[in-house]
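ok so I'm stuck.
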Amino acid sequence: LKHKYLHLFWVLTLYSCGNSSNSTAQNEIYQPITEDQNNLYVTNQWELTSPVEAGFNEDLLQEAFDQGMADGSFTQASLVIKNERIVHEEYRGLTEQEKQILIDNNVPEQIYANFDFRDRFSLASSWSVAKSFVSIVIGIAIDDGLIDSIDEVASNYIYEWENDERSYITIRDLLNMRSGLVPICRDYSNPENADPIICESYAGSGGDLLPFPDIASICIDREIAQTGVIQPWFSNDITWEENYFLYINCDTQVLGKILERAVGNDLETYAEINLFSKIGFENYWWRDATNNHTAYCCLDATPRDFAKFGQLILNYGSWGNDRIVSESYIREIRSIYPNYVLSERNSTSAYGMQFWTFSFPRTQEDGIEFPTYPIYSAIGYDGQYIIIDFEKNMVVIRNSLYHPYIATGDRVINVEGDLITEVNFPNTLPNTMGIATYFDTNQFLYKIHKSIIQ
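replied:
not stuck anymore, here's the structure
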């Protein structure tokens, strides 16, 4: 497994049909509702509306879903939520065509046999979407007075940084992936070396942490990179400079450790008490071999529950009459555009506060520019998306096919050893299996927008 199927698994990047169902067909019966009857914030369960009532052209919306759920896309779930109600949702398992793709790539039956059926109760993986959850939990800890502010120095909690140049790194720097610290990778040139090394090439993936048993320690024990020189993990021709953006998984892992030291509890427990339980978000968070929760990735939940997180952001941090996180913190997230556009990467997208914006304006195949305003998103490897469109009061979810492959009975990551008895990993398709098929989320979102008539 480690030699063939996980060569992309260690990379967490940004970037007929099985058993399908939609919001009005298999699981529930749609009933018309009025605006003052939404029980989402009472029961933590989504209510449904029809595309017509939500202001969509039903045929065009279905065209968008036909593209999003197409055979060969490896899509498990797609949802559109507008005005706090599910407008349309579809789920499916592995298609025969997709199964054949896996077989042709020598994926063993023990792996592909897990993907036959999926519905709204099936778990999806967050991968790096979990980073955005960590950001919100940071905001909650600030509201609780356990962290002073995002401009506080991280060394107040990461005491290992107190007496060197890392003492000036702020929590904001970590949230924005502008800490200046080096990225950590596996030693691909020397597979016998089990120790982490500084990445030797561009680490747009954030650096591969999953092979290591103590990710918190190796992320804390990093150095600040030298500026004014070519750093191969950043560019082959652009010098690395102070305050440049570099997507690094370790920065989020350090945020997780800051949270634990600030609140005096583990990351998942604090999040459960102050976030998950309040919005009805049922989840499983993966850990490493030394019991560190993988703050930078690997949160398992249903797509509907991921949508609740998006709705919370859309609500500026409120859940009905309850304030989960301060409005000012959500406005910090909204301010990443234009404050943190990735100009050092010659990009029109922005990254900050552990969230992305889509690049814009972007000319689509039909010549129309879309989007024309910042649309925000939590994004994870293999095409996991929580898209938050403040202008349209809309949340869009997309998840790839997922099965938590757990040989030992617990979500403790281990990518070494025997596939049947020792290996545990969050297995999404197709990228985790080394198959270079990528979901076109921009096109899917554009088709959804084209179906909005009011």
